[in-house]
Structure formats: C-alpha cells, structure tokens
Amino acid sequence: MTVMEKFRLDGARALVTGASRGIGRAVAIALAEAGSDIACSARTLGALQNTVLDVEEKGRRAIAIAGELADSGAATRVVEQAASALGGLDILVHNAGISPTTEDGTALIVPLQELPTPQWEKVISVNVNASAEICRAAYPHLAKSSRASVVLMSSVLGIMGAPRLEAYGASKAAQISLVRSLAVGWARQGIRVNALCPGWTLTDMTKVASDVKPLSDWFISHVPNGSWASVDEVTGSAVFLASPASSYVTGHALVVDGGLGVADGGLAGHPKAPSPLEP
After folding, report:
1. Is 168 a catalytic residue?
2. Interval 147-163: pLDDT, tens
3. Residue 73 needs a FRET pair 20 to 30 A away by CA distance; which of 82, 124, 130, 243 works?
4. CA 249, 65, 55 angle in degrees (round to 5)?
5. What Cα–Cα distance (Å) separates residue 275 from each residue in 108, 215, 220, 240?
6. CA-to-CA dists, residue 182 to 15, 158, 237, 250, angstroms
7. pTM value > 0.90
8. Of these residues, 123, 160, 168, 243, which one is catalytic?
9. What is the reported pLDDT for 279?
10. Using 50, 70 and 90 to split pLDDT, how confident is the model at 266?
C-alpha cells in the first residue's frame, strides 16, 4: 500500500453526526471523496439535503437520518438506522454539539455564575451524554469491522481555559477523557478512538465572534497563525484519523488550532488585543 493509498476509505461505511453544516458537512464530503459511503445525521432531514447531494456527487452512497441527540435514546436510534442502511459501520465521526444559547438561538457568552442551570445541563446532555450513548450503541457494529475508527469532535477549548465558555469547554474536555478510556478499553477489539480538536473555525456557531470585529480581533490575537480556520482545514485531519494512515494512533487528541493551544503562543510573543468582554 502506497502512502496515498493509506488515506483511502474505499468501501468504508461511516456515520457522521451534525452533518448538515459546518465542520460536520465538510467532513462527510471529505470522507466520501476518500471512498466512504456516508450516513449523515442532523436534527431534521431537510437540513441534510445539500450534504446528501454533495456526497452523491462524489460517487458514494448517502443516507439521511434525523435525530435530536438531546433526547434520550435518539443517538442509539441514529446508530441503528445507519448500520442497517449501510450494512454495518466502520467509522463513526461524532461531530454534533452545541454551546449555550438564549431562547432565540443567540450565543450566550457569560461567566459560569451567570449561566442558567438549564443551559449547562443541555450542553452536557448533547456534548457528553450523547457522545457516550452513540459510542455505546456503535460498539457492537464497530467490533465486527476490521477497520473501525471513532472520531469525537472535541475542541481546543477542551485542553485550555475557556472563561465565559465553561460549559462548552468542560464538555469538550469530557469528550477527550472519554476518548482516552475507550481507546484503552476497545483496543483489543481493534477499535481505534481519537478526538479531533479544532481551534477557531469559521462556522455558524462561531459567527457571534467572527462577525464582530473587536471580538474577532481579540480571538485571533491569541492564535500564532493569525487567522480563523476554514472548515476545509479540519477535514484532512478527520480523514487521517478515520483512515489506515493512522492505524497506530489511538487515544489521541489531535489539535488543529493554528497554535492557539500552545501556552501563550509559545515564544511568538504576539501582542494580545484587550478583551471586549471585560467591563
């Protein structure tokens, strides 16, 4: 097998959650381009229409599955439908996740002491509890595969301090801990489990920061690379973790953040803009 062939996923069967937009959609398309058939999951079927079309344009099979992962049992139903439609599962990329929002969907960026308890509980339910449930449901299918790989979409905020984003950061740190435990527990069944930790990436979720110049400038002033990431800058790492190219990689949190997670930006000495969030 050549180096490039190791990145191929021909004939693989993958489930990608949160696949209607942003990183999830981009990952689903990238896995299809590498040769995998894709079961795409999101809260509504209508939201998945474009992802399905993009996967099919790559010549691969696409299945759309609706599931509100905040609901108990929904993650299990999504897995079972995906495995049934594809004839099994080789790859699970669990990308679906949320951050705190107000009732109208506006991002809620406040200190922990001001965050309503229901918002904390919803973030933990979707980002942590659903992660555990979907992995538990996928296990028997992955255990039958000779190429099983799980990728939980965590975040650089899971490995660094995240004031005013405590719920999101804590949930992403929990995903990394889950990855490490499952990687050890499932290794002898041939199932690799890793986390992918993007930094500041241009998605609908981050518009609250990227579209507001003072806030965007402050976020990016902490990134040695000096820019926001596009979703396409995350997909290569996802394909790597899902493919034979990473066959000896498990229990790892792969950070794709332009250097954000390096303490104080390493020795780069980039000047930091004052925080617009402070009074």
Report:
1. yes
2. 999 999 999 999 998 88
3. 243
4. 65
5. 16, 8, 11, 36
6. 18, 17, 20, 9
7. yes
8. 168
9. 65
10. low
